[in-house]
Write a structure and sequence with these properties.
The chain has about 400 residues and is α+β, with helices and mostly antiparallel strands. The protein has two domains: about 1-55 and about 265-400, no CATH class; about 75-255, no CATH class. About 55% of the residues lie in helices and about 15% in strands. It is built from 13 helices and ten strands. The protein has helices at about 1-15, 20-55, 80-90, 120-125, 140-145, 155-160, 205-215, 230-245, 260-305, 305-315, 320-355, 365-390, 395-400, and strands at about 60-65, 95-110, 110-120, 130-135, 150, 170-175, 175-185, 200-205, 220-225, 255-260. Helix 9 packs antiparallel against helix 11, helix 9 runs parallel beside helix 12 and helix 11 (about 320-355) packs antiparallel against helix 12 (about 365-390).
């Protein structure tokens, strides 16, 4: 341990003697570490951002939309009986709830705001993990009678209401008045059915929106939340078979509906971004290899410059392993300094870039420790040959060196 301490001090002293050269030598390591850590950190932030957006779809949820397989055939909406059949006939279904959506202008207290209107039920809230933070949700009677009560998102509450004066207030959506009975908790991502902001929305009972906004009893889409202990593929197949039967789709004909698996989308998108991050990180890591070669090159130059010093040390009794340890320590210290500077640079770049493009900054201690350990490994790998060469010098030949 004492020998290592002395060797470390000698290495630091030698690095300080040639400070500019040492910095330029470690530049490849600095750029390599900074590039890799920055790319991986931003990639993780981008993945998290997309996962948060997809969280608005819910987990263990199928979202079913009607579609038009043929331009000559009109789109066939769903009916409430379809929802009941799915809820009652497919094992593993926890919630099945239809919904409709439209756009409207919200008015209150002289303020107006363009927003999304969603006709939904408490079962829809459960399927989508929507919680009412303040106030209350709809009652069975309000849903059944289609009363003019509403639950607003946090964006609406901030835009057209006075703080702490939301519950019990009257607001108007186009020409329809409603009483605010609750404020939905803030959510990340976008709203299912329409709108880019999951909090820029007003929820009313399904029948209210159908009668007073849409003008019919059609279901525009529905969500099915299932028990994760059941097979996702089995439930999806049963759902497709039941809908084909109820919508009288003959064998060989295309489905006139789409079933979207929220978990599958999340996994697929996450996998794509992780793969892209890995590819970019590997490309950035090439500069680490270049930096390692630079370390080897400058250490070989250092051995040549200090040949007489090495000869003197060997002549007065220094062991070959001590000489090897000295040069190897210098290489490792150089790479460690480069790694630390690169990590600091990556931290700053990640914070600035993430803020500029509105991504979450996710500090990963394990990634930074791994980058530092890898930079030290680069010092050992590329510093060993010059150190070994120094330890094998003949003292007599070394002393004769000019």
């Amino acid at each position: 341990m004492r020998m290592f301490g002395s060797t470390l001090l000698l290495a630091i002293r030698e690095i300080r003697r040639h400070l500019l050269r040492s910095f330029l030598t470690t530049l490849g390591i600095i750029i390599g570490v900074a590039s890799v850590v920055t790319m991986v950190t931003l990639g993780q932030g981008l993945t998290q951002n997309v996962q948060d957006d997809l969280a608005g779809l819910g987990s263990q949820v199928f979202i079913v939309f009607p579609r038009q397989p043929d331009i000559n055939v009109p789109r066939q909406p769903f009916e409430q009986d379809d929802i009941r059949a799915i809820r009652n006939q497919i094992a593993g279904v926890e919630f099945a709830a239809g919904a409709v959506f439209t756009n409207a202008t919200a008015f209150h207290n002289g303020q107006d705001w363009q927003t999304s209107v969603n006709g939904a039920s408490r079962e829809f809230f459960s399927a989508q993990n929507i919680d009412v933070g303040e106030g209350r949700s709809f009652t069975d009677e309000e849903e059944e009678r289609g009363e003019s009560v509403c639950i607003v998102g946090t964006t609406i509450a901030e835009k057209i209401f006075v703080a702490d004066q939301v519950i019990g207030e009257e607001m108007r959506l186009n020409d329809v008045s409603c009483t605010v009975i609750g404020i939905a908790d803030e959510r990340s991502g976008s709203n299912v059915g329409g709108g880019n902001d999951a909090n820029d929305i007003v929820y009313l009972p399904l029948k209210t929106v159908q009668r007073r906004f849409i003008g019919n009893d059609d279901i525009q889409f529905f969500v099915v939340k299932y028990d994760p202990s059941y097979s996702t593929l089995t439930i999806q197949n049963q759902l497709v078979d039941l809908l084909r039967e109820r919508r009288v789709i003959q064998e060989g004909e295309d489905n006139n509906f789409d079933v979207i698996d929220s978990q599958e989308i999340s996994n697929t998108v996450g996998g794509i971004f992780q793969a892209m991050t890995a590819v970019v990180a590997v490309i950035a890591a090439i500069s680490l290899l270049v930096g390692g070669i630079g370390i080897m090159n400058i250490m070989l130059v250092s051995v040549t410059e200090r040949t007489r010093e090495i000869g003197i040390r060997l002549a007065i009794g220094a062991l070959a392993k001590e000489v090897r340890m000295q040069f190897l320590t210098e290489a490792v210290v150089l790479c460690c300094f480069g790694g630390l500077i690169g990590i600091g640079l990556a931290f700053g770049l990640s914070v600035v870039i993430a803020s500029a493009i509105d991504l979450p900054f996710l500090f990963n201690p394990g990634l930074n420790l791994l980058a530092f350990a890898f930079s030290a490994l680069m010092g050992i790998t590329f510093g060993y040959y010059p150190a070994h060469r120094a330890s094998k010098l003949d003292p007599i030949d070394a002393l004769r060196h000019e």
